[in-house]
Design goal:
This protein is of the alpha+beta class. The chain has helices at about 5-10, 30-35, 65-70, 75-85, 165-175, 190-195, 205-210, 290-305, 340-350, 370-380, 380-385, 435-449, and strands spanning about 15-20, 40-45, 55, 90-95, 100-105, 125, 130-135, 140-145, 145-150, 155, 180-185, 215-220, 225-230, 235-250, 250, 260, 260-275, 280, 310-320, 325-335, 355-360, 385-395, 405-415. It has 12 helices and 23 strands. The two termini are about 35 Å apart. The protein binds manganese (II) ion (MN).
């Protein structure tokens, strides 16, 4: 249950593109990643200029791959996630694992960490899961953070005021640094669990272990009191300083715009462990992978919340155009007119950053934006079916929201057909098919590619 075993699995299916030509960590790899972004293959860069190490990217780049990693169908994904949040399971702690093959003095400059965008502050680690514990050991947390390289032994870590930030504040009050394990190159289930946000106190490694049917194994770090997956590719042991802060950023976030520079704490790296031939994992900020990992847990939360107010939720899509974060398209089966508006309100409550929600009937494919637009064109009346909520808490990642207060305006669109009018008026006309014509089309398609 490692990144490697998963890579073997997808390579057999022909989903890996190996790049043998020389490419630089400075923009070039990010450029290739961007060029193969949506629905793209896993990329393995075998020839990284100035480094011995290979780089893997776009691992969780499609919904299908994430579901393959969890060994489930797309329809099962939300239930599986919700189940794992509810019944986390402690992974076994083992003494040894592949990640301990090499233990060495830290030198971050020897790791092929990417510089992604033109105005980025510099190279950043983007696909790492960070484990930490409260000082009394009762609370554990795993989360994903961007980390800017400062020198051979130091990183600046962006702590959004969530769980790790809280643990860091608890350590700060006790005037001590916070031990962390930074794991890079982990199984997609670990990435997905760490990107989700179960309540404070639930350890995301336990969630990952539930997703992996109790197959996750952890090792204790050598110098810090923190844990890492035993079969991770690379682990940086470090301490988040209680007192040292530096300007962090600017850096591109999920919306593909630059996040502002802020004072953020410094991490001192005290030890490095890795596999002999470790692969460095990279993730393109604002790429499909970033959006899926951040968005999927909220799709599950929206699915659950909306399920409580309408008879059936068919699908949820935090669409790529909405940065996988700000736009939701939800298909439902409604019982009464007005159900869709309750669905909109439930979605906003389940995902506070959500800005625009569109609710459609179950005959609309939420992943096909032409169909969604068609539903808005033919089933939506702005005077009756629009909800606007002003001055509500949203996301500061949205450049148009008030950057100080986070206040924004939200819009919900009920694009379901009104039950008071004849159904036939709203149905898409279909052309009858026959076996013969279906075979013919298949043949013509094959010929045209
Ligand atoms: Mn957490």
């Amino acid at each position: 249950m490692s990144l490697r075993s998963f890579l073997e699995q997808v390579e057999e299916k022909g989903e890996v593109l190996r790049v043998k030509d020389a490419v630089s960590t400075n923009f070039e790899i990010a450029y290739v990643m961007k060029s193969f972004d949506e629905n793209g293959p896993v990329l393995i860069f075998e020839n990284v200029e100035d480094f011995e190490t290979q780089i893997v990217a776009n691992v969780c780049g499609t919904r299908r791959r994430i579901c393959e990693a969890l060994n489930i169908s797309q329809e099962q994904l939300y239930r599986r996630l919700l189940e794992a949040w509810r019944s986390p399971k402690k992974p076994k702690i083992v003494d040894d694992g592949p990640v301990k093959e090499v233990v060495e003095e830290p030198d971050l400059l020897k790791i092929p960490i990417l510089t992604h965008f033109e105005k980025d502050a510099g190279p950043y680690i983007t696909a790492a899961v960070v484990h930490a514990k409260s000082l009394d050991g009762t609370i554990e947390n795993v989360s994903v953070h961007r980390m800017q390289v400062l020198d051979e032994k130091h990183l600046a870590i962006r702590l959004v005021p969530r769980h790790l930030y809280r643990l860091w504040n608890m350590a700060k009050e006790a005037e001590t640094d916070l031990d962390i394990a930074i794991s890079i190159g982990v199984h997609p289930a670990v990435m997905l669990a760490a990107a989700s946000s179960p309540p404070f106190g639930v350890c995301e490694f336990d969630v990952a272990n539930a997703l992996l049917n109790d197959q996750l194994r952890l090792v204790r770090c050598k110098y810090v009191d923190a844990y890492a997956p035993a079969d991770a590719e690379l682990v940086l042991e470090g301490r988040i300083s209680a007192s040292k802060e530096v300007p962090e950023g600017p850096f591109v976030d999920i919306t593909e715009t630059y996040d502002v520079q802020r004072k953020q704490p410094v991490v001192e790296i005290v030890n490095v462990m890795h596999r002999e031939d470790y692969i460095y994992q990279a993730l393109l900020p604002s790429g499909a992978e970033h959006r899926l990992l951040m968005g999927l847990p909220f799709e599950a939360a929206i699915y659950e919340a909306v399920s409580k107010v309408v008879p059936k939720v068919c699908a949820v899509n935090l669409s790529m155009g909405g940065s996988g974060w700000l736009h939701a398209i939800i298909s439902i089966e409604k019982q009464l007119d007005g159900d869709a508006k309750n669905a909109i309100l439930a979605a906003f409550a389940a995902h506070p950053s959500l800005k625009h929600a569109v609710v459609v009937d179950s005959d609309i494919n939420v992943y096909d934006l032409t169909e969604v637009e068609w539903a808005i064109a033919t089933r939506f009346q702005v005077s009756e079916d629009l909800i606007v909520i002003e001055n509500v808490r949203g996301s500061t990642l949205d450049s148009s929201a008030d950057q100080e207060t986070g206040l924004t305006s939200k819009m919900g669109i009920d694009a379901t057909r009104p039950l008071s009018k004849p159904k036939e008026k709203f149905e898409r006309a279909r052309i009858p098919s026959s076996k013969r014509v279906e075979e013919l089309v298949k043949k013509l398609r094959n010929r045209s590619v």
